[in-house]
Amino acid sequence: HFRVYQFLCCICLDVFTDPVSxxxxxxxxxxxxxxxxxxxxxCQCPMCKETFYTIPQLRVNTLLSxxxxxxxxxxxxxxxxxxxxxxxxxxxxxxxxxxxxxxLKALKSCLVCQESYCQTHLEPHLTKKGLKRHQLIxxxxxxxxxxxxxxxxxxxxxxxxxxxxxxxxxxxxELEKTEAEIQQMIQKRRQKIQxxxxxxxxxKGAETKEKQAEGLIKDLxxxxxxxxxxxxxxxxxxxPDTANSKLILSDDRKQVHHGDxxxxxxxxxERISYCVNVLGKQSFSSGRFYFEVQVKSHCVxxxxxxxxx
Length: 309
Description:
Blueprint: E1 19-21, E2 27-29, H1 30-39, E3 43-44, E4 51-52, E5 59-60, H2 62-84, E6 108-110, E7 115-117, H3 119-127, E8 136-138, E9 147-148, E10 153-154, H4 155-158, H5 170-202, H6 207-230, E11 247-249, E12 256-258, E13 287-289, E14 306-308
Antiparallel strand pairs: 1-2, 1-5, 3-4, 6-7, 6-8, 9-10, 11-12, 13-14
Helix pairs in contact: 5-6
């Protein structure tokens, strides 16, 4: 039996592909070590930091390649064995769309491929780079009915909970899309953090690699924090009920300019009459906030920012 960490490249944290040895004795994927040296000024080993004055000639480690191939074969045999133990789909359960003959019980459904998969046929979505980006949900029937015909996207992203498509204006659809993309990016980065933590535990004695992983984790956590801040952005509009009678608001209530002539407007108690001002429609009860405003001509701009308690 092989131990998994023996066949992991410390650069990509995945099973070796075309493993090569460098003069210090450490092994890496051929593409990984080549790209690593291309991105660094000095040519050194990522593990022991031994520096080479010229780029060493890379040769495939034949023995390690054979061991990796045998390891992958054993893993595939275990997967095949476990798939044979799976149960056939019972009435009321979702069957696998790929199985031929006896259709096994599906574990997940892909909203991109519009198909449901058993444990065996789900594997490519968990291992292949392109398929990892697909959105998986618990196995369900009628996947086609869960897609918005107008946007050709899952209903959960564009439509109401009653599965009817709304007529969104461009701004609202854009905000919803941004929110979904941020959520997806956060999930991917959290998953990557967990993968790094588990891989570091498996590689014994790799103190240098552990420090590199900790730095990467901090960078990813900082990126998550920045993404969370983006979610708090609010689209502020102007409140016509508070506008001074000499101000003229645009139809979208995003712009205002001085009209010089006092207009006849309803005498609202909220209207500002003692100075030429207008308030925003939205209000805040807590949290930090600020405004970004474009100013034209010779208008005087007053901005309010701070911390609400």
